[in-house]
Amino acid sequence: MGKNQTTYRCGECGWTSLRWVGRCGQCQAWGSVGEVHAASTRVASVAPGSRAVPITSVDADEARGVPTGVGELDRVLGGGLTPGGVVLLAGEPGVGKSTLLLEVAARWAKAGRETLYVTAEESAAQVRRRAERTGAVDPRLFLAAETELGTVLGHIEDLSPTLLVLDSVQTVSAPGTDGVPGGVTQVKEVTAAIVRVAKQRAMPVVLVGHVTKDGTVAGPRTLEHLVDVVLTFDGDRHGDLRMVRAVKNRFGPSDEVGCFELTDGGIVEVPDPSGLFVSHHAEPAPGSCLTVSLEGRRPLLTEVQALVAPTAAQTPRRVTHGLEPGRVSMILAVLARRAGVRIGSKEVYVSTVGGARSTDPAVDLAAAIAVASAAGDAAFDRPVIALGEVGLSGEVRRVPGVERRLAEAARLGFGLALVPCGSNAAAGSMTVVEVATVSHALALLGVRAKPRHPAPQDVGHPPLALVQAS
Questions:
Q1: Is residue 155 within 8 Å of residue 129, measured between CB atoms?
Q2: Which of 117, 224, 247, 362 makes the best surface tag, with the fewest CB within 10 Å?
Q3: How far is residue 393's CA from residue 245's CA, in Å, rounded to a whole number?
Q4: Which residues does 247 contact at the CB level (< 8 Å), separation at least 6?
Q5: Alpha carbon of 223 to those of 25, 100, 136, 226: distances in Å?
Q6: Hey, is 211 helix, strand or coil?
Q7: 272 in Cβ contact with 233 (< 8 Å)
């Protein structure tokens, strides 16, 4: 007999504790911690059914991805859906998860493969109407509206599909398991059962997942550990651009991104999204600077805009959109302390164009130049590409992939780029100037006077005379 041990587990996120608490220590939910009885047992060794084999004799082609027909999704997945792989696609309600996966299922079926689309949130007729609107109708695509795990497994046994799409994992219940659909125990049991079937049949599976109000995947954290790939599908509710990002990927890069556009006729791939994140000015405008961020292996041209305005409030506002607020606050402090840009008593607004969200440190220099340009009300007479991470002492640090970023900027027709010292990068006829500090970058652009003691690497670069003071 094993010794019973009482533990307490959160019904929202699965966090466990040895004593009862009124508030979860992980998700901070009140009243979600309940008592769980567990028995500790001793497990005896069992003879394996098959012997371990040398790694050199394992066929790697068995884990090679099969293209879905949706190029942007295949880019994020690392080539396609892997046989036996389980993919979790999470996103906010109404962002287009079901539309995207219905398109994937239809293209998979049109390639002559049996596909099963299980909907636990809609009726089969509702899915059929959406498929007619988007042109995703094919006789090899089978629909089933089920909410019980046993029935879903029965459909798999009866049809033997080559792809399963389950929408969504939080709405399917496992009979005989404690909790309500969407709870920690239910989600774990449903996901574990689907993973077992996927591995046994070498059948790729795509699960739709819900998200919480802060954008994280709903359910227990173990859900993300059970699956092979975790994708997030997000976008501005008021815009058409949608982006798929890989958070976890056992078969490919874990930081890749795919771009789509949600239209009335369905979802459309956007293979070249750089132009979506840049505004077109009739004349030069202050407070704007361009940069090239890396989303996985894809360089994306991004425009950073800033507005510096006087205020009568004792505490000026600092508002950001598309950039990390903490990083922008650090850049403002560096500008004030190291570059002499006076913004302490003014409101500062920093935003990216087109709803782009970037956490790439290479955007720092562009944000600093945009704020300084807005503070001095100075506009550049031609676009400037700025790349570099800004340090607390005002230095501009090197960033990875400079040549790839510059090649993208040169392809789009830009002629001037500021990069960190030591990058040793060139891009055809594009003028590339290395800068060591934020202060020197601003001086080269004419935003402020040249520093009294420039760095040795900076000597020899005259001001570029790119500024038109208003």
A1: no
A2: 247
A3: 33
A4: 224, 230, 231, 232, 254
A5: 19, 22, 30, 5
A6: strand
A7: no
Beta-sheet strands, E only, within 275-415: 288-295, 298-310, 318-321, 346-352, 378-380, 385-386, 389-390, 396-397
Distance CA 132, CA 264 (A): 12
Dihedral pair phi/psi, residue 468, rounded to 5°: -115, 105
Extract the residue ranges of the chain whose pLDDT is less than 50: 1-2, 449-462, 465-470
Instruction: Kindly give the residue spans of alpha helices, DSSP state H, lying in 160-207.
Output: 184-201
Concatenated DSSP letters of 121-166: SS-HHHHHHHHHHHT---TTEEEEE--BHHHHHHHHHHH--SEEEE
Query: Cβ-count burial of 222 within 10 angstroms (0-12 exposed, 13-18 middle, 19+ buried)?
Result: middle
pTM for the full predicted model: 0.77
pLDDT of the residue at 26: 83
**Given the DSSP bridges, would you call strands 298-310 and 346-352 parallel, antiparallel or unpaired?**
antiparallel
Q: In angstroms, rounded to a whole number, what is the distance separating the alpha carbons of residues 106 and 314?
A: 58
DSSP 214-274: TSSBSS-THHHHHSSEEEEEE--TTSSEEEEEEEEESSS-SS-EEEEEEETTEEEE-S--G
SS3 labels along 382-412: CCCEECCEECCCCEEECCCCHHHHHHHHHHC
Q: Which two tokens stand for residue 340?
A: 């002499």
**Which one-letter amino acid corresponds to residue 138?**
D
Q: Is the Cβ–Cβ distance between 129 and 147 less than 8 Å?
A: no
Residue 394 CA to residue 402 CA, distance in Å, equals 20
Per-residue confidence (pLDDT) for residue 469, from 0 to 100? 38
Q: What is the pLDDT of residue 14?
A: 76
Residue 91 three-state SS? strand
189 φ, ψ (degrees, to nearest 5): -65, -45
Q: Is the peptide bond before 439 cis (omega within 30 degrees of 0)?
A: no
